[in-house]
Amino acid sequence: MLPALPSGTGDPGTVADTLLGPVPDRPEGVGYWGPALGPGSTADAIRGLLRGLTAGGRPVRLVPTDQHVPGAGLAPLPAMGPQDFLPGVWVASGPPVTPGGEGDWNLLVGAAGGLLAGWCWADAIGIPEGWHEALRRADEVWVTHRAALAALDAAGIPAERRAVIPPVVDTSAFRPREARDPEAPVEFLVVTSWDWLGGWDLALRAYVEEFAADEPVRLRLVVRDVPASGVGPEAEAVRLLARLGLDPAAVPDIDLVVRPPDDASLARAFRAAEAVVHVPRGDGLGLPVLRAMACGVPVIAVEGCAHAELLTGAGGIAVPAAREAAIGMPGIDPALTGLVALEADITALRAAMRAVRSDPLAHLDDAAAGVQALRAFAGPSAVASAIAARIDGMLAPAAVEVTA
After folding, report:
1. What secondary structure does DSSP assign to 250-278, as a single string?
2. Cβ neighbours, 10 Å, residue 159
3. Could you tell me the end-to-end alpha-carbon distance of the chain, in angstroms, rounded to an integer?
């Protein structure tokens, strides 16, 4: 049985009851099924998707599969109006192979009615083999970045049934700063999840090994997703420094921010940075890359990460990476066979950070040129238009060939 709807988000009772209950059909409407209320980067992306769905003026029905987390610092949900209808198209996010996910996916495919578009944030280096069969049952499959399109070939998704729908970037908040303060320390920003896939340890190691304690630099390490168990980010960072043989009191400036209070403070952190460092072992959303581009900030990015192709000529500094099987690594579900992790080259990462420290202005012109490209790809109106085009195509009646 699916979880109960949180109060204020839709009809009472269980999601299953609501989907199958006596509600009117609105074939022009769109339903969203999946996580929407929890904290972290996934919720950021989902709320952007919901803004894109509502921007076209269609009725949108929200069926969240997670629970609200107070104080998560998330943007508010967009207004969606009455929820008592059965839409013509469902957009479902999240892997159908997560615990309980297969049953939920089957409900949408077989019982909820309407067409189904699956929105998945697969890593640039593969889609888990366990997702393939479920994704083939969807009418369309949307991925969050262009490199993931190739992974859909292995899943047997034909070209006409797939599309790139990136996470929305709020370009009113994530916007270029006016000028750099030449007296300020050179600041590197890392926005990451606090797990092995996030690669926070790679960025921190490269920073403390490259720079002396008295250099005018700062690493701002922003953690959006924190595991419920464990010693906590602060203690784990100290442990890493100890393993490297470093005294926490004798390293360059580090500012660790756990769960920033809101998007406005996060946007200010992007605008204050000389460079964003993005070296995840796996990340299918790539929001730090997109947000840095919106702010005109250069990005030191691991090769193969989501949206890496956008950085060419737009202030990107590529860091080569080894590719390793992810199975058996910390926090990786053994069922997700076929995944490969990226391991950024520490020497190259150190060199890239040193280059920014030596000349903070070297990549700014290229990064500024990438702002418009970002807006045309992941700005609110661009994503809303892309979503509207896909939904219009799904809802359009089959063309009737007329012969003489």
Report:
1. GS-EEEEEES-SSHHHHHHHHHH-SEEEE
2. 9
3. 54
Can you list the alpha helix ranges (DSSP code H) found in 176-249? 200-210, 233-243
Domains of the chain: 15-168+379-395 (3.40.50.2000), 186-377 (3.40.50.2000)
Asked whether the beta carbons of 133 and 154 are under 8 A apart, the reply is: no
Confidence (pLDDT) at 353: 98
For tokens 């280096």, the residue is: 125
Structure tokens at 365: 């012109």
Of 259, 302, 260, the C-alpha closest to 279 is: 302
Helix (H) or strand (E) holding 31: strand 25-34
DSSP 3-state percent helix, strand, coil across the chain (nearest 5): 35, 20, 45
C-alpha span between 173 and 192 (Å, rounded): 19
Task: Look up residue 332 and give its two tokens.
Answer: 């990786």
* The two three-digit tokens of residue 133, written as one number: 């069969």
Residues in the chain with pLDDT < 50?
A: 1-15, 124, 398-404
| Per-residue model confidence (pLDDT) at position 372 | 93
pLDDT (0 to 100) of residue 222: 93
Residue type, 353: M
**CB of 279 closer than 8 Å to CB of 219:** no
- Nearest CA to 240 out of 274, 196, 281, 275 is that of 196
Rounded Cα–Cα distance for residues 136 and 124 (Å): 19
* 118 Cβ contact partners less than 8 Å away, ≥ 6 residues apart: 91, 92, 93, 96, 134, 135, 138, 140, 141, 142
Placement of tokens 């089957």 in the chain: 106
Name which of 171, 221, 186, 177 is nearest 200 in CA terms.
221
| H or E, element range at 119 | strand 115-120
